[in-house]
Design goal:
Helix 1 packs across helix 2 (about 35-40), helix 5 crosses helix 10 and helix 6 crosses helix 8 (about 140-160). Helix content is about 75%, strand content about 0%. The N and C termini lie far apart (about 55 Å). By secondary structure, the chain is mostly helical.
């Protein structure tokens, strides 16, 4: 059984919208990108974007591909995992407007929150499974790691709280690394 022409057209429209959205968000950032501009880039009416994605937040959440590119932590010496994650996080986030926008959208919309939850499930949990000493504690430990990383992202990159912005990379790794290390590898309290 083949798809009807209408289903194929719908899929093609969704694909065009997502490709246009990715390009527009990358070029203009989340705040300056508009549904009208994305629709024009896709060669469709703006109402079609709204029909498929509901609003700008829903479109952003659907369009943004997030690859944390977490390092192979199981190959690192066990006592360096926390600082490695902290350093990797900073390298990933510095100047990354898409990730900053995702945190903004995730805090404000269900679609964004679901996108962040997916990244947590698909990328952070598997890494925690390889590192944590007790498999039953993996979800809680990974959630604690996420709380620290997202908290830093919120204060440093979204809210831009001056003391958080002013910290150097080395200072953040020195403060955050041991906390992440404890969450990932320490015995349960």
């Amino acid at each position: 059984m083949t798809d009807s022409p209408r289903v194929r057209r719908s899929d093609a429209t969704r694909t065009a919208i997502l490709e246009a959205a990715r390009e527009r968000f990358a070029a203009d950032g989340y705040d300056r990108a508009t549904i009208r501009a994305i629709a024009a880039d896709a060669g469709i009416d703006p109402s079609m974007v709204m029909r498929y994605y509901g609003n700008k937040e829903g479109l952003f959440a659907a369009a943004v591909a997030v690859d944390l590119g977490l390092p192979g932590l199981s190959e690192l010496p066990r006592d360096t995992v926390g600082p490695a994650v902290a350093g990797h996080f900073l390298d990933l986030w510095e100047g990354n407007e898409v990730l900053t926008a995702l945190v903004r959208v995730g805090a404000a919309s269900q679609a964004g929150a679901e996108r962040i939850q997916g990244v947590f499930r698909e990328q952070l949990l598997p890494v925690a499974h390889r590192i944590c000493p007790d498999p039953e504690q993996v979800p809680a430990r990974a959630a604690l790691v996420a709380s620290q990383l997202l908290g830093l992202a919120l204060t440093r990159y979204v809210l831009r709280i001056p003391p958080a912005v002013d910290l150097t990379r080395e200072e953040i790794v020195a403060w955050l690394g041991p906390t992440l290390q404890r969450y990932l590898t320490a015995p349960a309290p």
